[in-house]
Each structure stands twice: as C-alpha cells, then as structure tokens.
Amino acid sequence: MGEGRVEVQRINFPELAEPNGRIAEHGVILRVVSTNICGSDQHMVRGRTTAPVGLVLGHEITGEVIEAGRDVLTLEEGDLVSVPFNVACGRCPMCKAQNTGVCLSVNPARAGGAYGYVDMGGWIGGQAEYVMIPYADFNLLKFPDRDQALAKIRDLTCLSDILPTGYHGAVTAGVGPGATVYVAGAGPVGMAAAAASRLLGAAVTIVGDVNAARLAHARQVGFETVNLSNDASLGEQIVAILGEPEVDCAIDCVGFEARGHGHAGAQAEAPATVLNALMEVTRVAGRIGIPGLYVTDDPGAVDDAARRGSLSVRLGLGWAKSHSFFTGQTPVMKYNRNLMQAILWDRLKIADVVNVQVISLDKAPEGYALFDSGVPQKFVIVSMST
C-alpha cells in the first residue's frame, strides 16, 4: 500500500484465468496452507523497486488443490503441493532446458515470471487464502504422502524459494566435499545456502553479516561466522578461522541493498560491496554464486548509477583471478524434488536452520515489520482458514 505499508484486505476469489484474461484450463486453484515472507518482498515494501500500490504479495506458496482445470492430468482435489516461485509454461525452449527462471511465455515484458512480484507478469501473489497456479502439471511438486508432508510442513514450505535458491547458490559456486565456503548474508537465504553447503559436503562454511543476532543464530546451528561490523577485514577474519585469507567457494545472499564494512560502513549502503569482497576472498579460478537479488531499477538507490542497476564492480579483479560468476533467478524445479527427499528422509532440517516462525495471515503486517528489523527468523504465514 505504499512505502513501508502492507495491509490485509479482502480480494476476489481466484479464477482459472491468466493475467491477460485468457482462460487457464491448465491451472489449478489452491487453498494456501503456508506462504512465506521473503526478503525480496521486503525490497518492494521498502520502496526499492517500481512495484505498484495494490500489489498482492507472495511468491513462496504451499497449498492444497481444491479445483483443477479440465486440461490438468496429474493432480486432483486434495493433493498437497509445493509451488516453485517461478511461473513457467513448460513448453518454451528455456523451460525445456530447465531454465524455468527465464520462461519465455509467461511475462510479456521480459523473460521470467513470478507470483506477486514487480515486473514479473502480473501473476497474483499467494499471501492469501487462495491462489491460482497456471500450467499446474508442469509447475507443481506433489508431496507423496499428505500426513507426512503436514507433519514436516515447516520444512517443506521452504521448497518454494529459499531452500532451492540457497542450494542453487551453493551448486553454482562449486561447493562439494571438503570445500571451504563463505556465505555473505545471515538472512534466511544465506542460512539456506549454508545448510545446502553442509548437505553438499563442505568442510567449513563461514557466514558473514553485520547483524549480531543473525550471526548468533548461525553459530547456534553450527556454522562459523564473521562480523562485518568489526574493524578487522573480511580476509583477516577468514584467516583467523581457516589459517588463510581465501575460500574455495563464495555465495552472495545479500544483493543490491548491501552495507559496507566496519563500524561506520555497516550503517551505509554500498551496493557493490559484497561482490567486490567476494572477489577478494575467493581463490583464483574459484566460482561465485549470486542468488542475492539485483534489480534493473532501484528508486531508493544511493546514486544515479545504482538507480539504473549500474554498480561499481571490480570486474578487473575477478578477471585477473579467473573467477566465474553465476547470476539470475533460481530454476526451482531443477532442485526441489531432491531437496524434498532430503527433508522427508531427515537429511536436512531447514526450518531449524532458518528459524521458521509461524504466524497467521492477519498478523502478516507485524511479520513484515519484525523481519525488516533484522530478527533472525523466517516468517511463515498460515491462512486463517487453515
């Protein structure tokens, strides 16, 4: 409802129709079981995007099928499903190549669609009681056992975005058995990336942030930490942990609203500071995964260049060190089934790692305010009809 303002309002019950009005017999209507507040939602609420007033938020959705279009073949009423935040058609060349984050068919403005998000095709978000999901046979991940899924819903709700996003960051950064890993950002995505690194066999995972409460939680769940509010440099703090100033793999889970280093810098926005720091502490020929969000338009940026998404990145340093950079929306479907299995077989307790806090839909505005204050929690909304 404007910068810093979210409200719970009554909206129309969803129809099997696309944003352009075309009938969507390929879709389903879900009763929302859980839907999460994401840091990407916060960027919009803070006024850091061109999101319009009245946007229905919510791209992290888990729900129950209550109605299916006549073209839906593999789902039926009562199925419990996870919804990838990517809206994807399953038919275009990008979807066929598993690049579902840049589907060519679901957004007339650009490649890639998402629910409840600015410039992502106009798909209505899922922070609601009900939501319509298109191309349901392709998009939805059905849980094999309803009772088992409900018992693990605090973990499974993370499959819609943050867990695959953190995992994608770790995979693209080259994390594997014995790797040393630095994760920038101790928010939910950063913690998911740390958990993914551990799942992939990392020897040491270091999480960095300026938020002491979030770092305390990261230590509590078993990760090494560095506090970027300290005067000691990132490299110096990594030396204290590893005995050397560089790591094998690095993951940017902060994005464009990053803060600078040191006591004064921790209060000042410095959009490229994370990317530049990662190039400094990543070994030669290393890889840097960048699941953190960067935008093409930032009305609240610190300078004119950043407002256009132009950042002062030390590309020469990355070139000299032969780094590889991996950016863009996470193609959730590339990972979500295997991550579901890891949860169901107790290989990954992601709800504990990201510190899931369940709230009711009517308390969503308070959840946004608390999340924006930097508490070490992931807020999961349950519908008032749940």
Describe the model:
GO terms for molecular function: formaldehyde dehydrogenase (NAD+) activity. The protein is built from 16 helices and 15 strands. The chain is an alpha/beta fold and 386 residues long. It has two domains: 28-161 and 332-382, Medium-chain alcohol dehydrogenases, catalytic domain (Quinone Oxidoreductase, Chain A, domain 1), CATH 3.90.180.10; 162-326, NAD(P)-binding Rossmann-like Domain (Rossmann fold), CATH 3.40.50.720. The strands form three sheets. Strands 1, 2, 3, 6, 7, 14 and 15 form a seven-stranded mixed beta sheet that branches. A six-stranded parallel beta sheet has the order 10-9-8-11-12-13, with helices on both faces. α7 links the parallel β8 (180-184) and β9 (204-209). α6 (162-172) crosses α7.
